[in-house]
Amino acid sequence: MDLAKKQARMSGSNRVAALVVEPMQGTAGNVIPPPEFLPALKQWAQELGALLIVDEMITGFGRTGKRWGCEHSGVKPDMVTLGKLFGGGYPISAILSRDEIVNTKPWSNPSGSSSSYGGNPLASAAAAAALRIIDEEGLVENSRRMGEHF
Question: Which residues of 121-139 are buried (b: 16+ CB within 10 A; e: fewer)?
Answer without folding.
Answer: eebeebbeebeeebeeeeb
